[in-house]
Here is the input.
Amino acid sequence: MDSLLPQVREIFRDVFDQPDLIVTRESSAKTVDDWDSLAHINLVTAIEKSFKIKFALGELEELKNVGDLLDLMRTKIEAK
Amino acid sequence: MLECPDLKEIRISVLGGPTTNELVDLLEILLLQSGFRPTFQQSEYSRYYEDAVLEPEQIAAFKPDLIYIHTCSVNIRYPPQVSCTEEEFSAFVEAEMNRYRAIWASLENTVGCQIIQNNFDLPSNAILRNLDSISPGGATRFILELNRQFAQASVANPRLTLQDLATISARMGLDHWYDPNRWFSYKLAHTVEGNFAIAQSLASLVLAIYGRTRKLLVLDLDNTLWGGIIGDDCADKIVIGRETPIAEAYTAFQEYCLSLRKRGILLAACSKNNEEIAKQGFAHPDSVLKLEHFSAFKANWEPKHENILSIAQELNLGADSFVFVDDNPAERAIVEAQIPGIAVPDVGSDVTQYASIIESKRYFEQISLGKEDLERAKRYEENTQRANLESKFADYGEYLDPLQMTAEIGDFNSTYMERIAQLTNKSNQFNLTTKRYTLAEIEAIASDRKYIGIFGKLNDCFGDNGLVSVVLGREEGRELHLDLWLMSCRVLKRDMEIAILDGIIERARTRNIERIVGYYFPTTKNGMVADHYEKLGYSLVSRGEVAGRTVWSLEIENYAARSRHIQILEPVHG
Here is the structure.
């Protein structure tokens, strides 16, 4: 399992207020109910604050699913 | 928390320039924490002008208690060009101001509730650098001028409350305030921290609008108001004055406390000390605070929470409106645990930080500063003199007569609307129904023929007590139903309620009313008026199923005016 996934999953559960939400590398806005633009802002903000990283403008648009997000996060965390 | 029954429902319309969802989420949490259950309506992104001016009916249909207009410097429609001349500058300002005047007027006419409008944060880029605030083509100067005119608009209109975004952003620093990435990605104008600061300030404004601000500062003495232990070191050795940096810091904190008192916050001393010795501290020639500045003074060896509760009793104030300042963390912890609702800021033990820590908590937010506020402390001083006089007399009437009381009983009028609304929101003890009214509601009632709204002002030989009592009667056939009867506790036991009753009946007669119906709705705080109507000679009509509510009535046919100790004057308007 992806080492970042447990912490990111907790953030998802918190933002969507669903304690049992299943989040995998394959999850995306299409598979998670309520993942709209407002929830997206909250997710990004929470991830940036928790991991002390910043996403650059446009970087998130390329991502297809949570797996892509975790990979991008990893490159940012390693670059710190 | 959402199930908690004591939360006050509040409906807030948010008209946003930037995206407001994050700000609203944060505000919701803070309001829940402060005893409100908010319901929000938000405009679509950047539709603040259209919603307010073109479709205000949709806002009115939501029936908001408050409207918050959140616009910031990115929303300025007509910014001047760098080449702008002085003459053109005025036209640009006027054009932008007209947009806001249209927003405010439309909301007032169609919705009619309190409006909170924030002024502008300074621009993220000041391309003219220092000239930006000087040249007529500078964005900074443009915003400074708009903010000046916003302030004037708010002063002229009590229904328009201003939130000072310029200062909130300055406190944080513009580099931590703006995040261009969030703006381009989500049209969020501010960082999370910025939005949190805005939400905190808004929550305290909401508290202020509903009269839930703090009223009294309880101060420890040793190492809080001066350096050193007066009982050990003697009065002439305490650290205060201008001789050393530490002495100057204590002097500055005393000056801060005195400035709070001048704007209407009462001061009380509470110290573990010998009373005589403690008082000598204020006789020190360098002490800015003098004994007469304290509305209550407790220096003894009893536990502090007991002393604070007896201060509350003496002054007829709720201890939940107090702020307790003490350098000793143990005292802070005990007081906080023992007195529900009291605010106990962690001021640490560094005197240079006390004032800024207290300030950061926004305890004393107020939406307007009236004559009442500026004279409040003096009134409590006069009350102490009255109490001294009281102890000299055996018979109560014998005490009342030398006070040479005169009362002015008048119908609601524009001069007193704000004070009346303020009183309905902050009176808890002498309040028969504890119904709260906003300024807008009071204004609506004043112009409704169905209602009789009466205020009472009381004067005596020690000074003017100001507007201290409000009664609101609703006509129903030949009956007048008293929806509200309240009085400020500083004029308790002065027979003011009798003078007011005379005033009610005088008015009722001109409308052919035969019976006055009064209600008592018990709360945790208004036990003192449970027998109010009984004492005035009303008969009990019913005792309700709901929480001990009682209904009373008084036939007025044979009523003769009863006021003996208060002379009633014709109201003076102005």
User: Anything to note?
Assistant: The mean pLDDT of chain A is 93. The first helix of chain A runs from residue 5 to 16. Chain A touches chain B through eleven residues (CB under 8 Å).
